[in-house]
Design brief:
The structure is a single chain. The protein is an alpha/beta fold and 458 residues long. It contains 18 helices and 15 strands. A hairpin with an 8-residue loop joins β12 and β13. The strands form four sheets. The protein has a seven-stranded mixed beta sheet, sandwiched between helices. Helix content is 41%, strand content 16%. The longest helix has 21 residues. Bound molecules: pyridoxal-5'-phosphate.
């Protein structure tokens, strides 16, 4: 097929939507390090995890060997409401950049929650329902995960309690109201409703909160209330597994077009969209069947991959969650409140951390104003208003396309457009008013976070 025949959008037929999730860990020679019990320092067992997580999700979390998990029919039905998502050839952006590169993006913002998070939210809510639970608890940062989970819980008739990072609760009242419309209860975190929240508030009065704090609160409520479990929107292996639907669809669409991406780019907060997007491609790379350049893009203000340490750390600020071996800035690291987008988590998926450590992917950090410059250019050329998180990937894709312009290379660049930015207009306002700043933590700032790393030799 000649290049100019590639349609602007490629959709799979409904019957071509993948019927199984792909578990990247099955093809990893070096598996991600196991989660540890913070009390004993030993790998967590399924029995220890089931008071926190749903049974089926615990199985998925701990399974490093099964390559494919069939997607239950009920989840496939739900997926049909907003999937397949389009693979878009960014002809208009290419033209503006005057690049010989061919830019593609997989657009995950075409549902009310506005992001890819719904792919895992419906799966996690489904397994909670199947187990006969009353409800689930969770945290949300920028609000996309809470919104996605609220939608999924409303669909299945589950109760949903969301702890929302305080600064987002205050700055993003509209997301809060979407969640409440879907029937969720939303509490700003840290709150006085939990022991850990009260402790964090006593130690840091006036804190604007962090994902780490909100996780601690949600876990506490789940474990103290019968019939509730905790669910998490990123970082965990199970979430990457569900998000593999993004990559599987993308790969199938590329195969239909007879095109192979050379460079695959995704923004990285906890790693779920990137892990999902790259899954089948990384699988080929791990099996030695194909090679791709894979790039994780993170904010310079929260640089887990590029300046973090590969070490065991807590996933939450309250230090009640399991220890995970990952690239981390320390669970006490609280990103600057003037950082506009999501991607604020101190750690990173253990799977992606291992792959990065073993040299299977690259990472780069980008500054906030250059991210919004890219967002603006994308909005003006491709029409879609991107989420600030997604715009990190756009920045890197544009930079790679501009590099191709210098070298004359016609590379195929793929990036994940994880969501839309309609609820992020405060950040766009800052940018448009010229008031956006770039915050880059100093080495001393980072040293404070590292000082709090648990002492574990593993
Ligand atoms: C949550 C979110 C991200 C980052 O989370 P990952 O787990 O790293 O994918 C990126 N983009 C959007 C739109 C999000 O909502």
């Amino acid at each position: 097929m000649s290049e100019n025949k590639v349609p602007y959008k490629t959709y799979l037929e409904e019957n071509e939507i993948p019927k199984a999730w792909y578990n990247l860990r099955a093809d990893m020679k070096v598996k991600p390090a196991p989660l540890l019990n913070p009390g004993t320092g030993k790998p967590l067992t399924a029995e220890e995890l089931t008071p926190i997580f749903c049974e089926e999700l615990v199985k998925q979390e701990l399974d490093n060997d099964t390559a494919y998990f069939p997607i239950p029919d009920d989840i496939l039905e739900f997926y049909k409401m907003y999937r397949p998502s389009p693979l878009v050839r960014a002809y208009c952006l290419e033209k503006v950049l005057d690049t010989p590169a061919k830019i593609y993006y997989k657009f995950e913002g075409n549902n009310t929650s506005g992001s890819h998070k719904l792919n895992s939210a419906i799966a996690q809510a489904f397994y909670a329902k199947k187990q006969g639970l009353k409800g689930v608890t969770t945290e949300t940062g920028a609000g996309q995960w809470g919104t996605a989970l609220s939608m999924a819980c409303a669909y299945l008739g589950l109760d949903c309690k969301v702890f929302m990072v305080k600064i987002s609760y205050e700055q993003k009242p509209f997301r809060r109201e979407v969640m409440r419309t879907y029937g969720a209860s939303v509490t700003p975190s840290p709150s006085m409703e939990t022991e850990v929240g009260r402790k964090i508030l006593a130690e840091h009065p006036g804190t604007t909160g962090s994902l780490g704090c909100a996780i601690s609160e949600a876990v506490e409520v789940a474990t103290k209330n019968p019939g509730y479990r905790y669910v998490l929107g990123s970082v965990l292996n199970q979430v990457l597994l569900h998000q593999s639907i993004i990559g599987l669809e993308t790969k199938a669409a590329f195969d239909k077009l007879g095109v192979k991406p050379d460079i695959i780019i995704g923004c990285a907060g906890g790693g779920s969209n990137l892990g999902g997007l790259i899954a089948p491609f990384m699988g080929e790379k791990l099996r030695g069947e194909a090679d791709y350049r894979i790039i994780a893009v993170e904010p310079a203000s929260c640089p887990s991959f590029t300046r973090g340490k590969f070490a065991y750390d807590f996933c939450d600020t309250g230090m009640i969650c399991p220890l995970a071996k990952m690239y981390t800035l320390g669970s006490g690291f609280i990103p600057s409140p003037n950082h506009a987008g999501g991607l604020r988590f101190h750690g990173m998926s253990t799977t992606l951390s291992q792959l990065y450590h073993d040299g299977f992917m690259e990472a780069r950090a980008v500054e906030q104003t250059s991210v919004f410059e890219a967002a603006e250019l994308f909005a003006r050329s491709e029409g879609l208003l991107p989420a600030p998180e997604s715009s990190h990937a756009i920045r890197a894709a544009i930079d790679e396309a501009l590099r191709c312009k210098e070298t004359g290379e016609e590379k195929n660049i793929l990036f994940g457009l994880t969501g839309t930015g309609y609820f992020d207009l405060k950040a766009y306002e800052q940018y448009n008013d010229g008031k956006m700043t770039d915050y880059i933590p100093t080495d001393e700032d980072l040293a404070k976070g590292f000082a709090g790393l648990p002492k574990i030799d593993a």
